[in-house]
Amino acid sequence: MSLTLDPDYSSNKYIYISYAYRAASDMMVKVVRLTDEGNALTNPRIIIDLIPAAKYHAGSRLAFGPDGKLYITTGDAVDRNLAQDMDSLAGKILRINADGSIPSDNPQK
């Protein structure tokens, strides 16, 4: 669904991808970091998973900001109320560290 290169790609060769998948009867999105080995992508590491999705409302664009953080847009999974639910990852712009951890300066709910 989306792909972006790590800001330090020239030295670490990290590529971030997001994709939708089925989990039981639900659709979800995950973001995975891979290492570009030239002719193969190796060392998959899940950065974030279980983002609610739906066929036409999965969102999922990836980009690194000038602050070096990974930004992930998520769709509302055809339930606009999820965008207002602070306990749901749906309908948000997520800001995380490149390793998937939560930045200490993120807003608190």
Structural features, described:
- The protein is globular.
- 19% of the residues are buried.
- The protein is mostly beta strands.
- Strands 1-2-3-4 form a four-stranded antiparallel sheet, with no helix packed on it. The protein has a three-stranded antiparallel sheet with strand order 5-6-7, with no helix packed on it.
Provide the spatial order of strands within the biggest beta sheet. Answer: 1-2-3-4
State Rg.
14 Å
Topology, number of strands: 7
Summed over residues and divided by their number, the pLDDT gives a mean of 94
Shape: globular
Q: Estimate nothing, just give the exact number of structural domains.
A: 1
**Annotation field: number of helices:** 1
Report the structural category: mainly beta
Q: Please give the largest β-sheet.
A: 4 strands, antiparallel
Give unreliable regions as ranges. Answer: none
Order of helices and strands: EHEEEEEE
> In whole angstroms, how far apart are the ends?
28 Å
Strand content: over 45%
Instruction: Please estimate the helix content.
Output: under 10%
Summarize this, please?
This protein has one helix at residues 9-12, and strands at 2-5, 14-23, 26-36, 41-53, 59-64, 70-74, 93-96.
